[in-house]
Design goal:
Elements (H helix, E strand, L loop, with lengths): L1 H22 L14 E9 L7 E4 L5 E2 L4 E10 L3 E8 L9 E3 L2 E3 L5 E7 L7 E6 L14 E8 L6 E3 L5 E3 L3 E6 L5 E6 L13 E7 L6 E3 L25 E7 L5 E7 L9 E6 L6 E7 L8 E2 L5 E7 L6 E9 L6 E3 L5 E5 L15
Parallel strand pairs: 1-8
Antiparallel strand pairs: 1-4, 2-3, 2-5, 5-7, 6-8, 9-10, 10-11, 10-12, 13-14, 14-15, 15-16, 17-18, 18-19, 19-20, 21-22, 22-23, 23-24, 23-25
């Protein structure tokens, strides 16, 4: 007994630990719960040509949308949260009535990107029809000029009625007629012919100004313009320098610059894609800024105005053609290849490139 009493002080700490363990006092604190998963709410805008479109998320502060393509209205949305995207302000200049589809729901376990904002354009009031004319290769004969005529559109039936006195002459081999975005200018592209015996040997641009009230066209001074074909000093594209024949013209959405697709009709003709600007006073092609690499093809710009696509020949692959994808410098129009570009498509020429109206797919 006396021996047990001598050892009792040494046993007390052990007994205390056993009591704490029995009461659960020795267990470690529970780990904190992980933060809830967060997702975003957004979608795509298509058909926007005006300015002033604003969207609101769950009735909050209006957010301006300035271009077509993807948009995000909210981030850090938890599972089960109700969301709603509505239009607060409609576009003006020109006026449009946009509508939202799939604009509300409850957050699931993935980002929401299915909201669609469609901005249809108003029914057109005028149409322009170009007749091509012809280029002669016979010495002593002259080319036959084409013409452009204006028609009014019946808003109910779509029927056309010729506007008296609207016809103006144009190039002898017109293949396209386009309005320069956000301006009163229009361009007719007249293709060249390597058998021609006059100045229409190369393709040319005929620029016009449309009256804001009547739509009637007035030929601008300086027509025709051969700027887009390049000159003997134009740097090489596709390994060829000098003049070429412009086959197609694409404007940037803002109308400040564009891209001319040229083919080398001559042995020393430029076959690349040339970037140009547009004179704000005359509507003429001006200040050719650079030439892209690659043989190229007609240029397609996605609806948001951020990306450019065109056909290109992939070096070292013979007849292999690829799809070149590029970002656009919004100030200069200069193109920068996207990582991985060009993508191999197949043997032979790549056909025209088209994007869907919302800018999701090519």
């Amino acid at each position: 007994m006396e021996a047990l009493q001598r050892k009792l002080p040494d046993l007390l700490p052990i007994l205390a630990l056993l009591v704490l363990a029995a009461c659960g006092g020795g267990s470690s604190p529970s780990a904190p719960s992980p933060p809830p998963a967060m997702y975003s709410v957004g979608g795509y805008v298509a058909g926007l040509t005006g300015s002033g479109l604003t969207l609101s998320y769950n009735g909050g502060t209006a957010v301006a949308v300035s271009r077509n393509g993807a948009f995000t209205s909210a981030t850090s949305v938890t599972i089960g949260t109700a969301y709603s995207v509505t239009i607060v302000g409609q576009p003006t200049n020109p006026a449009q009535i946009c509508a939202v589809s799939n604009g509300s729901g409850a957050m699931a376990t993935a980002n929401v990107s299915s909201i669609s904002v469609s901005c249809p354009q108003s029914i057109g009031t005028r149409a322009y029809v170009a007749t091509g004319g012809s280029i002669t290769s016979i010495v002593g004969q002259s080319s036959v000029p084409g013409s452009i005529s204006e028609y009014t559109i019946d808003p109910s039936t779509g029927a056309l009625s010729l506007v008296s006195g609207s016809t103006v002459t144009t190039g002898p081999n017109v293949t396209s007629f386009q309005f320069v975005p956000h301006s009163s200018f229009a361009w007719a592209l007249s293709l060249g012919d390597d058998q021609a015996v006059d100045q229409n040997y190369f393709s040319s641009i005929f620029a016009y100004t449309a009256d804001s009230s009547t739509g009637l066209l007035t030929s601008n001074s300086g027509n025709p313009f051969f700027t887009l074909d390049g000159t003997s000093n134009t740097s090489a594209a596709c390994g060829i320098s000098g003049q070429g024949t412009t086959q197609a013209v694409t404007f940037s959405p803002g109308g400040t610059f564009g891209y001319a697709y040229n083919t080398p009709e001559l042995a020393a003709g430029n076959g690349g894609i040339q970037i140009f600007t547009i004179d704000s006073a005359t509507g003429a092609p001006a200040a050719l800024s650079s030439v892209t690499g690659g043989c190229g093809g007609p240029v397609t710009i996605d609806p948001s105005g951020q990306f450019v696509y065109f056909e290109t020949t992939i070096s070292g692959n013979g007849d292999q053609e690829g799809l070149s994808a590029n970002t656009i410098d919004s100030t200069t129009g200069v193109l920068t290849p996207i990582a991985g570009s060009p993508w191999m498509i197949g043997v032979g020429a790549v056909g025209p490139v088209t994007t869907d109206p919302f800018g999701r797919f090519v």
